[in-house]
Amino acid sequence: MNSKDLLQLTEQFGAPLYVYDADKITSQYKKLTNAFKGVPNLKLNYAAKALSNVSILRLLNSLGSGLDTVSIQEVKLGLLAGFKPESIIFTPNGVSLEEIEEAAALGVQVNIDNLSILEQFGSKHPDIPVCIRINPHVMAGGNSNISVGHIDSKFGISVHQIPHLLRIVDLTNMNINGIHMHTGSDILDIDVFLYASEILFETAKNFKDLEFIDFGSGFKVPYKEGDIQTNVDELGKKLTKRFNEFCKEYGRELTLAFEPGKFLVSEAGYFLAKVNVVKQTTSTVFASIDSGFNHLIRPMLYGSNHQIINISNPKGRERYYSVVGYICETDTFGSNRRINEISEGDILCFKNAGAYCFTMASNYNSRYRPAEVLWYQGKAHLIRKRETFDDILNNQVDVKELFEPSKKQTVK
What we know:
Strand content: 15-25%
Number of helices: 12
Shape: globular
């Protein structure tokens, strides 16, 4: 997509606005499948938490993707979008046994990450196939909030607890059909990831009826020009060779699974917002936009870097701006960024807005969440309406009768 297209979409649908390029999602999906074309059985399960709009799920389903879900609601969204139950894996953390049983009853692949639920589920449902999430104690992610494979992580069953795990499996006679790990997002060091994979291979040898090994995901995408990213082609060559060797050792062809989320949709997303005020202080020039961390929280939550472009004045001279939002507390998208000269009314474009952006949007300050648009085959398709005041009140119950002033008694 180009700036002209994006500007036209703000004229058509208003701002702030999320836009997703279907062609980019498709090309990222093909890039990953091509990197692992040497694996006889490859399964990519799109991580729905990255961007869960039902139309995006339908697009991924049409490409042949499976679905990685972390809540029963995401499971139901996946089924609504046309995914077959057997192509959905349910990998929650810290949820109740009842939620896991509900997912299992829908026919999806259950993935359990703690010994307590494993024992309870195995005792009640020994015939239902279960995948086990292992914590390899390898930190391959970036920011500590998105690194989930380290020793202090709440995710997965520790590799040091394998004897206990095996005792539960033996006593319940449950069916373990998959082994899973996820080290974290923004993987840069392929050798670290491959080291964690060896721990998973070693663990897999304890189970004789596996159908798949799931290596999670976390492939880093570039957030600015010249930014480093995961070399998926190199990873594909090295892991393919090792995986195929392991399958021969194991004695059967297994499926190699991944759960890409950010990798598939991050670069496909654009967030567009209008500049309300350009404010000069003694030390800073602020560009205040008609949005805030209620729409895009990642810079404030993770310190994430989203490239910001003035698509209304792409050839203007560059100046330094701090781009901020309208939330009544610290609400900064980027400090001292070099951006083409900004005027009030200009449209700013935030890149890499496809993953973990709208899905974490809220109604904080009683603001409306923006609309979402899918750019598909050169045409714009509205896939979520902009919220209204009625949406803010939708599930609220107004008990106004409790606070009506009492009638004054008449004095005779």
